[in-house]
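hiii, so i know i said id send this last week but things got crazy w the move. better late than never?? heres the sequnce for the chain we talked about at the cafe, plus the structure i predicted for it. fair warning i was half asleep when i ran it
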Amino acid sequence: MTPLIQISNLQKAFGRHRVLRGINLDIDAGSSVVLFGPNGAGKTTLLRILATLSRPSKGKVSVAGVDVTSNPEGIRQYLGLVSHAPLLYDDLSAAENLEFYARLYGLDSPAARIQELLERVGLYHRRRDIVRTFSRGMVQRLAIARALLHNPPILLLDEPDTGLDPQAAEMMTALLAELGGSERTVLMTTHHLERGLELADRVLILSGGSIVLDTPADGLTYGDLRPLYDRYVGSNAA
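okay and structure toks below
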C-alpha cells in the first residue's frame, strides 16, 4: 500500500540558515505519529510545508499522491491543521466560528456537523458564547473542532498542548486519543514526552533539521524514551 504521506529529501532554508536537512519520511494511513524535538529543530517548519503554508527549498512532499508544491489546493481537502494560532475569531461565538469555516469549506447544511463536533469537544453548552471569554484549553478544543469540520483524513497538530494547565492538557490528550483511530492519520509535534507517547504508535525525534530517531511506540515507555531523547537531543532540551 502506498503511504498516505511521502517525504523525500526535504530541505528548507531561510537565507543561509538550513532548517530541514534532507528529511525522508513515509506515513501510512491511520498512523498516529508524534514528533519530538527541541525548539528550532524544524518541527513547525515541517508541518507548515505539509499544510501548504510554506514551500520546500528542495525535495518532494506528496499527500495522497498529490504534490504539495504543484497542487496545494488539491490536498487541502485532506488536511486539518491545529497550530500555535487557533485561527478563530474572538468576537464570534463558538458556533458562529464553525459556521464561518463551514461556508469556506463549502459544506452543505452544516448544522448537524457543527453540533456533533461541539458535543465531541465538550463545548456545546458554550456554543453561543464569544470566543474571547474562553480559556486557553477551550480555545484549543474549538480549534480542533474547526480543523475537523470537513472530516479530513489527516490531522496536523503543532504543539496543541502549549500553554495549557495540567488539567486542560490531560483533557486535550484524552480528546486527541478519541479523535485518532484507524481511519484518521495524526501527525503531532510536542515537547511533552509522556503525553505524546500516550498518543503515538510511532515516535520520531527531530534534531538539527534531521530525523535522528524513528521507532515504533509499541512497548516503549517514558523510561525508555527519556534517555533516548537525552542522547540525541540533550538533557536540557525538553
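btw The domain at 5-232 is CATH 3.40.50.300 (Rossmann fold). thought thatd interest u
miss u guys!!
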